[in-house]
Specification:
Layout lengths: L3 H23 L15 E6 L5 H17 L5 E5 L7 H10 L4 E5 L6 H13 L4 E3 L7 H14 L8 E6 L5 H17 L5 E5 L7 H10 L5 E5 L6 H7 L5 E2 L7 H14 L5 H6 L1
Parallel strand pairs: 1-2, 1-3, 3-4, 5-6, 5-7, 7-8
Amino acid sequence: MTDPDSTFDSAAGLLGRITEQLGTRLSHLPHPRTRPPMNAPTLVAVGHGSRDPRARATLSRLLDRVRELRPGLDVRLAHIELNAPLLGEALAQTAADGRDAVLVPLLLAPGHHVTHDLPAAAAAAPVPARVAAPLGAHPLLVEALADRLAEAGWTHGDGDGVVLASAGSRDPRSTAETRRIAALLGERLGGVPVVPAYASAVAPTVPEALRALAARGRHRVAVASCFTAPGLFATRTAAHAPWLASAPLGDHPALARLVLHRYDRARTTLPVRELAAV
């Protein structure tokens, strides 16, 4: 006869392990409505910049969501080029306000902007400045990608494959990160093949990725837009979609949480100028 006490102990132990694992998985995520500590560095979200007027408006809405999640945190938008304020101007204003800064790139993978331009700007900044990692291969990013596909009409079992369209970079770390994002998205979609493709710099292009999937007998293929905001590349890659294309990630709630996660991880590190002196 089964001992009720031992059965209860086993069940309690299993529940405890599940709770511990769940807590470990969620502990790194920013909690909604968390108040920032006193004198918290300014979060400077850095977009690439675009001639498409929708881009700046979209990033502004994303940062509104970030502010809702972290009331009281100073959150500002800057751009690498094309749009005001440029990063140097934003850092000068942050210095004038007497604030340190954490630069959070609104970019999906390492590349010249992330590995060169942002650290150079942080090193030259008139205030201590840190640089966060790009948004990258993270479950929150994949959540946003999957939701945007669903909004466009994707349902499980309804398609043969997905092309993950991103900007592209000659930096091998960038393509490796994009492949990781594609693998995570494929898992999220139940094992559907997800092929990364690029709008510039490297192959394959979106048409080439579509042809590769067609050669494998997969013709009902969606294009997942791996861009933070509308712009030339997002528009160009979506135009190649034979079936449906998702919208850019924009102000998706999971992306706002990811921005805060990158900020929180970076604000405890040394400023770039101090790192260079080590």
